[in-house]
């Protein structure tokens, strides 16, 4: 056990684990450059409740932490806010110790847990608005389908003004600290933004509706304890307000330039396009997609108004890393963005048209004709690239008005 259980509210203990070494998540769709945590919470009242578990390989660490507080056989309820293995993986081992425990979750959770573990646990389906009394505390449930799986649910403790929303408001961030006021705020927000962009972005309409529903419930809130990363206690509304902005696809007048180059010609074009943008006063982030981490690039795109994509032509198409990147971006369904494309070619071209095809499918507004260059850019091409950047900067300024 690397860290002891921590009492985060009176009678409410963090019993999760820190995974310092995990570097990929959801298969290989997310790069966890700062590791992650699997947060589980134990409430000790007249009834004893475990809220979520941890990833299976860490089951013994969770059990050690629980044993430091109570005998696991005394646990009355286990709340499964979410089926996914990083939170339910330790459940089979926990259930072997918690003989009398009833598992609570949504109907989809019951189905999902069965299809993962084929165990016949004592399961009680709960719905939004239902509560259980623990003694001095109560827990109420808020179904949150598609935030981010159909089974997802939030658990709320009114007496402690504590929301435990599982994946929502989380970050993949391993730290020796547990709270937002004990970590670097810019690092925390960077991880929260990356998490939203890569996992939750396509679910923005659902997220916005759920936040509005919760706001209408007018619940008191002074702590949000998610299932990954840092607990929000300094100002839980900071992350709620950030989610509202992200879900509304609010942007800043910034441009993310993403390109892939074969022999350096497309990169030369990129450098002059960037110069045109910068000279026009636009803030720019630049990534060679074959070199940079996709999770980081997507994180940077969440708040940017404009995207410019470049690729050399290969087999009448864009280069393969760019093709994979745009396919991933399409699945994130970004809204309210403008873009254009560029690239070098030898004879037939084709990359620009293929990139534009995917971007149209993604619903991103192509506001400027593509820019091409045969083989290496000459002086005139270089000048056209600079002008292309300046012209796009004008589109950004116009979009912000
Ligand atoms: Fe959807 Fe952290 O699992």
Topology, pairings included?
Blueprint: E1 6-9, E2 12-14, E3 17-19, E4 24-25, E5 30-31, E6 36-38, E7 41-44, E8 48-51, H1 59-67, E9 77-79, H2 85-88, H3 91-97, E10 102-105, H4 107-117, E11 123-125, E12 131-133, E13 138-143, E14 153-157, E15 162-164, H5 185-200, H6 204-217, E16 223-224, H7 236-247, E17 252-260, H8 265-279, E18 283-288, H9 294-301, E19 304-311, H10 320-332, E20 338-345, H11 351-361, E21 365-366, E22 371-374, H12 379-399
Parallel strand pairs: 8-9, 9-10, 10-11, 15-16, 17-18, 17-19, 19-20, 20-21, 20-22
Antiparallel strand pairs: 1-2, 2-7, 3-6, 4-5, 7-8, 12-13, 13-14, 14-15
The structure holds MU-OXO-diiron.
Assigned CATH class of the largest domain: Alpha Beta
CATH fourth-tier homologous superfamily of the largest domain: Ribonuclease Z/Hydroxyacylglutathione hydrolase-like
Radius of gyration: 24 Å
- Uncertain segments of ≥5 residues (pLDDT<50)? none
Distance between the termini: 55 Å
Number of helical segments with 4 or more residues: 12
Query: Mind telling me which CATH architecture of the largest domain this is?
Result: 4-Layer Sandwich
Specify the biggest β-sheet: 7 strands, mixed
The average pLDDT is 97
Count of all domains: 2
Q: Quick gist of this model?
A:
It is built from twelve helices and 22 strands. It has 401 residues and is α/β, with parallel strands linked by helices.
